[in-house]
Amino acid sequence: MDLFDKIGNVATQTYKSAANKTSKLAKEAKIKMKINECKSKISDLYEEIGELIYQKHIREENINIKEDLDEYCMQIDNLSKTIEKNRMELLKLKDKKQCKNCYAEIEIENNYCPNCGAKQKEDEVEVKDVKVIDDEESENENGKNKENDTNNFNNDYKNYKSDDEIDEKINDDELEDEIEDEDKEDD
């Protein structure tokens, strides 16, 4: 029976590994499709801009960039931001990052860029719209406001590089708080 258990475990691990890789590839393909859609829209906008300018040239009208092209430029800017966001997400899926100096794609653990040699700063965890609510805050005993709590959260967790590391740290902190509470109750 032990042999069959080992075979079953290996098969399960192989299945999970294949499923994870397939999921990762599907996510990469989806992101690449989004990027290509945005690039196509930008190309169409460039074509529209060129057509508009040429029509004004034929009619011998003045071209006022602010009036005539501002909306097109804003659309292109938004699409470019979307492309950049998706590109960064794609890098994360590949476990890579971008050199801050030469913008080359490099391994996430590299401290120096192999392309230009620039030292890479450690990325800080980006925390958005974090709201920690507990009994102490609602009573506002120490006069601290919500902004201070969020700043404390950012300071406590800024050295962690992934959401999993933050979750692990939070769980450890909660466990320590529970143990302290139990100790207080026992006293």
Structural features, described:
This protein has 187 residues and is mainly α. Helix content is 68%, strand content 3%. It contains five helices and two strands. Helix 1 (2-58) packs antiparallel against helix 2 (65-93). 1% of the residues are buried. The model is unreliable at 124-162 (pLDDT under 50).
How are the secondary structure elements laid out?
Elements: H1 2-58, H2 65-93, E1 96-98, E2 105-107, H3 135-139, H4 146-157, H5 163-186
Antiparallel strand pairs: 1-2
Helical region count?
Answer: 5
Query: C-alpha Rg, in Å?
Result: 26 Å
Range of helix content: 55-70%
Termini distance?
51 Å
Strand order of the largest sheet: 1-2
What order do the SSEs take from the amino end to the carboxyl end, as H and E?
HHEEHHH
Average predicted confidence as pLDDT: 76
Strand content: under 5%
Number of strands: 2
Q: Structural class per helix/strand content?
A: mainly alpha
Brief characterization of the structure:
The chain is mainly alpha-helical. It is built from five helices and two strands; from the N terminus they run ααββααα. It has a two-stranded antiparallel ribbon.
